[in-house]
Design brief:
Layout: E1 5-7, H1 9-38, H2 47-71, E2 73-75, E3 91-96, E4 102-108, E5 119-121, H3 125-130, E6 138-143, E7 146-156
Parallel strand pairs: 1-2, 4-5
Antiparallel strand pairs: 3-4, 3-7, 6-7
Length: 157
């Protein structure tokens, strides 16, 4: 088995629920779409059938990816890590020293990253720069727009 995937129990539950839904309802609906398309006649020139088969293939790839992820999971909890430094699952309040903007992030594994929900991957450029820092430290981060300086204002669980 290759690399371990670190996830929270909540994210594991989300993956398991999605997998169950894809394997039951998803496969049932896909089989119906293929059956409906097949009933339209000649399969060699049936675009609906081709599209349904391609969608089925994509769904099966998604099922396989979720199963591979779940096979490598190690569940982690925030209280397993100290709160004096930035670690995975830390909540970090940072300030852009140039603009004064203050942003809150939770540091998570790449599989849990969700920028809209302020969940930042520890493997992202910002995540890598913040790991191991303590309150009051500064982090200089190279982003596509250039170099950005952040001050770590607060770390919590």
């Amino acid at each position: 088995m290759s690399d371990v995937v670190y996830l929270t129990k909540e994210r594991v539950n989300e993956f398991e629920s999605e997998l169950h839904d894809l394997k039951t309802r998803g496969r049932r609906e896909m089989a119906q779409k293929i059956s409906d398309a097949r009933s339209h006649g000649d399969l060699s020139e049936n675009a609906d059938y081709d599209a349904a088969k391609e969608a089925q293939q994509l769904m099966e790839m998604k099922i396989a990816k979720i199963e591979m992820t779940l096979a490598k999971v190690q569940i982690i909890k925030a209280d397993e890590f100290p709160s004096d430094k930035v670690y995975i699952l830390s909540k970090v309040k940072i300030k852009n020293t140039k603009t004064g903007d203050i942003i809150d992030y939770q540091m998570v594994s790449p599989e849990e990253a969700d920028f809209e929900r302020r969940k930042l991957s520890v493997t992202s450029p910002i995540g890598k720069a913040l790991l191991g820092k303590v309150t009051g430290d500064f982090a200089q981060i190279k982003v596509p727009a250039g170099i950005v300086d952040f001050e770590i204002l607060e770390i919590s669980k």
